[in-house]
Amino acid sequence: MKTILFILTSITLVLTGCSTTKDPVASAVNDAEQQMRYDMAIEALNNREFVLEADRITFKYGQNAFVSPNTNFISMSGDKATIQLAFNSPYAGPNGMGGITVDGSVTNVKMKTDKKGNVTYSMNVMGAGVSAIVFFNITAGTNQCSARVTPNFNSQVITFTGYIYSKEESNVYKGRAL
After folding, report:
1. What DSSP state is assigned to residue 174?
2. Helix (H) or strand (E) run with residue 159 in it
3. Rounded to a whole number, what is the distance in angstroms from the first to the last CA of the chain?
4. CA separation for the pair 116, 85 (Å, rounded)
5. Hey, is 101 helix, strand or coil?
6. What CATH number matches the domain at 2-166, 2.40.128.410, 3.90.1150.10, 3.30.1330.90, 2.60.120.10?
7. Which of 82, 170, 164 is nearest to 123 (CA)?
8. Please, what sign has the CA dihedral across residues 159, 137, 86, 63?
9. Which domain of life is it from (predicted)?
């Protein structure tokens, strides 16, 4: 009786363990793909040719808005940057898409990588409609990123959360800038 109970328990544990484990090949492929995206994102940051496509915007007091990555982004090309917000609303806004688009010149670019591989990237953006410091945090081993835009003249901090891509990989639509 004890032997049968032991065998049934062993079979149950083996079957339970088999059904909950991931396919190691699929997991390795996924990890390699994520690492490749991370490497491409870091290369884009180093080349100063990147776009953060945001799928979520967080405002000063923690309110979240889920948005379209095609129209909500922060981009950098050389020494120029664009910050764009566009919401689905009946009001066209200054950019013609329900939000605002500002262009500026980039200065004071700094990039640091910690021991775990997380990257912090910061830059100052100055232009006709913007004067802000932008802090990017890229998670190690993926292209997932959040960017905090901190204006120099008020405390209306906005955080963009999404994925960072090279300019060539990105598919964003830029509205009318201020």
Report:
1. -
2. strand 158-166
3. 81
4. 32
5. strand
6. 2.40.128.410
7. 82
8. negative
9. Bacteria
Q: Residue 2: what pLDDT?
A: 46
Looking up tokens 């979240």, which residue turns up?
Answer: 64
pLDDT at 29: 82
* Whole-angstrom Cα Rg for the chain: 22
Do residues 123 and 134 touch, judged by C-beta distance below 8 A?
yes
Which bin fits 117, alpha (ψ -120 to 50), beta or left (φ > 0)? left
Taking residue 112's Cβ as centre, other Cβ atoms within 10 Å add up to 9
32: Cβ–Cβ under 8 A, 6 or more apart, which residues?
A: none
Q: What pLDDT is stored for residue 90 in this prediction?
A: 75
Task: Tell me the pTM.
Answer: 0.84
SS3 string of 66-97? Answer: ECCCCCCEEEEECCEEEEEEECCCCCCCCCCC
Tokens in use for 169?
């990989």
Question: Which residues in the chain come in under a pLDDT of 70?
Answer: 1-22
Cα separation, 45 vs 41, in Å, equals 6
- Domain spans in the chain, listed from the N-terminal domain onward: 2-166
Quick one: pLDDT at residue 73? 97
